[in-house]
Design brief:
alpha/beta, Rossmann fold, Alpha-Beta Plaits, five-stranded parallel sheet, five-stranded mixed sheet, 23 helices, 10 strands
Length: 517
């Protein structure tokens, strides 16, 4: 059976085509229907139909634009065009894009049956030729998996058995995991490749395969992820590879395939789960038991936009009052309104970006301190559009708005730095980490580190070292032994302490003690 996807913005046409003929008798089965070009692209990428029946006139992405995009992604998909009589000339333009024919509305049953027979003949010949090519091909594991995942390996048991044996993939079961990898530093285009190289080396020991499944990367595992422990082990493996390169990720497991011929279905499962990956936290492995986060409403609430405007005002008032505590809750409430309005990832980023710029503009009108720092704030506002997840986006905005609220209140962020300095002088002998202090003070660690350097002139670790060395000098003056001093001021390794001491004082600690004894 060959798969068919019907694309028309009129539900009566979609339903009518499904009921018009006996599809299975014609050698086809309808695997889905789409109401517009964008939805059709999503379904095409998920299910890779052999034939698409496309209306030429649709709102948004019209049929011709859809076919152009399909041709950029896949040369071989067959297309029949639907058109009204008035669109006849327009429909003929589609012939230049390699469509198999056009059908005038209302569609005639005999005409559709004849068109399907012609397409089936072409598909049969393609499969016969591909089966011959597949028997002669030299199959690597990556090439075979990518071909199967994309639905390009035609149903031929003999050639599939041959290819599986040649590629070393004749396993009992197969688990597909797709990865969304988004390098945090776009200036380093090789970061993603290095993550995949690490994963490839790790999986090679278990017989796994790393492959490409546009627009994602994929892992083919020999052992299904049926147990929580197996999922945790895989997640830890991905985390180790991605965190070393600073690459946020979301992973999604498809269903377990009991044969290679089911690999495309397993990939389609994972594709569908990754469709809403923005709403999961970075570092998540989505599987059948993963709790679903709040998602955009399928039926938008018409009153959500008005409620969002009210929240914008509340956010401005809270900032002008210097009240930082309610901002996180207000931003969360704003997000709920966006979800109720049916906004997807792109829409939510635009809405939050507009909220942020609107707030900054209102504050800049009345507060000189915001006007002075407006270019820097505007640059940070643009970073919203590159947020890897819904939660991270909200956190970024909350940090910025809470900072502005503190400045307007006259407190600014200096009290936070004074608190950090006090803690360093109080706890210098302990294993102090910037990240731990940032958590305790409710700040993003990267931002707090920059703020600390701006205020003190030193990076956090440099300032900590200087405090420790000054204290070490006092203890050496009191006659304490070098190893005791090292431990007392927070250095676990004596040699490391000696190196730090010489860096800041100019002489080793033993020479310093002799000189001052």
């Amino acid at each position: 059976m060959y798969g068919v996807l019907i694309v028309d913005d009129e539900s009566t046409i979609r339903e009518g085509l499904e009921a018009l003929i006996e599809w299975e008798d014609a050698g086809f089965r309808v695997i889905g229907a789409a109401a517009n070009g964008k939805e059709a692209l999503r379904l095409y990428r998920a299910y890779r139909p052999d034939l698409m029946i496309v209306d030429i006139r649709m709102p948004g992405m019209n049929g011709l634009e859809l076919i152009q995009q399909l041709r950029r992604e896949e040369e071989r998909v067959h297309v029949l065009v639907l058109s009204g009589y008035a669109d006849f000339g327009y429909a003929k333009l589609a012939i230049h894009l390699g469509v198999d024919g056009y059908l005038l509305k209302p569609v005639d049953e005999d005409e559709l049956t004849a068109s399907l027979a012609a397409v089936k003949t072409a598909l049969d010949e393609e499969r016969r030729a591909e089966a011959e090519d597949q028997l002669q091909a030299v199959w690597s594991p990556e090439l075979l998996v990518e071909t199967l995942a994309a639905g390009r390996f035609r149903e031929n048991p003999e050639s599939l058995r041959y290819a599986a044996a040649q590629a070393g993939l004749d396993w009992a079961a197969y688990q597909v995991v797709l990865l969304y990898l988004k390098p945090a530093d776009t200036a380093d285009p090789e970061a993603r490749a290095r993550v995949l190289e690490r994963l490839g080396r790790a999986l090679a020991r278990e017989g796994g395969v790393v492959f490409r499944a546009e627009p994602y990367d994929g892992l083919l595992l020999k052992s299904p992820l049926r147990a929580d422990s197996a999922r945790r082990d895989l997640l830890r493996l991905i985390e180790d590879a991605a965190s070393g390169e600073g690459v946020p990720f979301v992973a999604a497991a498809g269903g377990v395939a009991d044969g290679l011929e089911r690999l495309a279905d397993a990939c389609a499962d994972a594709f569908e789960r990754l469709r809403v990956r923005f709403f999961y936290e970075a570092g998540t492995l989505i599987h059948e038991d993963t709790p679903r986060p709040p998602l955009p409403a399928e039926t938008p609430d018409p009153g959500a936009a008005a409620r969002l405007d009210e929240i914008k005002d509340k956010i401005t008032y809270a900032i002008e009052a210097g009240s930082r505590a309610p901002l996180s809750n207000l931003l969360e409430e704003a997000g709920r309104c966006m979800l109720q309005a049916g906004e997807n990832e792109s829409g939510i980023k635009i809405r939050y970006g507009q909220l942020l710029v609107h707030t900054l503009n209102r504050l800049a009108q009345k507060h000189a301190i915001v006007r002075e720092r407006f270019p820097a704030y505007e640059e940070r506002a643009l970073a919203v559009y590159s947020s890897p997840s819904y939660g991270e986006l909200r956190r970024m905005i909350a940090v910025l708005l809470e900072e502005i609220a503190g400045l307007i209140a006259g407190a600014g962020s200096e009290p936070r730095i004074r608190q950090m300095i006090h803690l360093i002088h109080l706890r210098y002998g302990e294993n102090l980490k910037l990240e731990a202090l940032a958590d305790a003070l409710g700040y993003n660690s990267a931002y707090l580190g920059k703020l600390f350097r701006h205020t003190t002139g030193d990076a956090f670790n440099t300032y900590l070292d200087k405090v420790r060395i000054e204290k070490a000098k006092e203890l050496l003056d009191e006659g304490m032994k070098v190893y005791e001093v090292a431990e007392r001021v927070g250095y676990a390794e004596v040699d490391y302490f000696r190196a730090k001491f010489q860096k800041y004082v100019g002489v080793p600690p033993t020479a310093y003690r002799k000189k001052h004894s």
